[in-house]
Specification:
Blueprint lengths: L5 H4 L4 E2 L1 H6 E11 L3 H8 L3 E2 L4 E5 L2 E5 L2 E2 L16 E4 L2 H12 L3 E11 L2 E11 L2 H28 L1
Antiparallel strand pairs: 1-8, 2-7, 2-9, 3-6, 4-5, 5-7, 8-9
């Protein structure tokens, strides 16, 4: 791995872009994923989708549901269900803490992005509090204002040069 730079390993292979739109992310955790050999190969090619994914806790273990990993074309023999529930690897204390927080009203456990770090597939999950419609509008207005400010600053730089 000597010739590859460190930034390439943390590049997201899949991202849940709607998560920041629908939730206030208060805390994030990094979890490993239990995958089959063909799933990791497909994931490294960027063939994963995190839209409509969610996490649950069953029997003290955390699982990610509805994460779609496309079947690996070259290895059809061991392909499994693309949207099966996959186990997440976390410490028991982290699972209990997230379970307690998710029991509060309006909170949920949301997968944010999937990436490979040191050869292992990782998923970044966050504790999200659902946004109301007016919160989403306020965020959109704030984003538009930031964009306008940046555009004006760029125009002023062009004029001064």
């Amino acid at each position: 791995m000597g010739s590859k730079n460190k930034d390439q390993f943390d590049k997201p292979l899949a991202q849940n872009k709607k998560a920041s739109h629908d939730y206030f992310i208060e805390e994030t955790y990094e979890a490993g994923m239990v995958l089959t050999g063909t799933e990791i190969k497909s994931l490294r090619r960027g063939r994963a989708n995190l839209s409509d994914t969610f996490c649950t806790v069953r029997n003290g273990e955390m699982f990610i549901h509805n994460m779609h990993i496309s079947p690996f074309e070259e290895g059809n023999r061991h392909n499994s269900d693309p949207t099966r529930a996959r186990k997440l690897l976390l410490h028991k204390q982290q699972i209990h803490k997230m379970l307690g927080e998710s029991k509060r009203e309006g909170y949920t456990i949301v997968p944010l992005k999937v990436y490979v770090r040191n050869g292992y597939a990782k998923v970044l999950i966050g504790m999200g509090k659902g946004k109301k419609q007016y919160d989403k509008r306020a965020d959109a207005a704030k984003k538009d204002a930031q964009r306008d400010i940046q555009r004006i600053l760029r125009e002023k730089q062009k004029v001064s040069n």
